[in-house]
Amino acid sequence: MDLQIALLLGQDGITNGAIYALLALALVLVFTVTRVIFIPQGEFVAYGALTLASFQAGRTPGTLWLLIGAGVAITLIDLTIAMKLGGRRQATKILLWNLAYPVAVAALVFLGKPGTWPLAAQVLLSLALVVPLGPMIYRLAFQPAAEASVLVLLIISVAVHLGLVGLGLLFFGAEGSRTPSFSDAVVHVGSITVSGQTLWVLGSSLVLIGALYQFFGRTIYGKALRATAINRTGARLMGIPTVMAGKLSFLLSALIGAYSGILIAPITTIYYDTGFLIGLKGFVAAIIGGLASYPAAAAGALLVGLLEAYSSFWASAFKEVIVFTLIIPVLVWRSLTTRHVEEE
Known about the structure:
It contains 15 helices and two strands. The chain is mainly alpha-helical.
């Protein structure tokens, strides 16, 4: 390996690490707020990329039907509960978010001909379709079991993952898709050529991380999420609705996942199950951070990306094994250095 190859591999590792960092931050956010190890995080990556690819191919993405179906199911459940409790005033809010919004998006898809739109508008419409699925999944699958043990929530998470993978195959088929690059610009840094899409990935990751930092530090909703992450019971006693915190954390997680998929779709071919492997690598980074520390998770993501890149050169057939084996020494080290507390 000469210096130029090492630099090229380092560039790939940093680019991949930027995506893994975003997914790791999303996983840490969801776990600290809801205690859910969100295995379906990768499915939002695939759904975001393939929804955009469907628009560009002139097809109606299957995620639209999933959005409508989830909205109808939540509307029926929440209206039934509201009527039993006599909360008829909540019916308008329930109908607006869970039913009127999916119908409005469907009208925009069918009447607006998004296949002819500019790329930026297609990206926004793709996010409008995929991101609301996050809080909807929380409402249907996790909110009824919010007080269950971490193991039960993990089993539910696995079930949701399997269901979303199967729906992805139904919606998008087994063929992979790519989307056009955000930019065709090329930047030369010494002997290294950096594509415009790579710069988009790195820049977007930094902007999102900075925006999340400001959100958690300066907004009332961000502080509510931090309070819920620190002490769920204490946050509830202080008047912070944990249901709202859970839905908001899933909303941010879906936004990060879907946008990450859109960012990498021009770089690599995305299949219906591609997100699972990408999400697992983000999970490895989150484990390095102990599913609690955002900076450590981001550093772990960079380590995972670089390890994957250099492993692909030295032992390409075993690069996935090498990356996932990284969990073992991290877990051993944490087991030896962390005081164990039995969960009540």
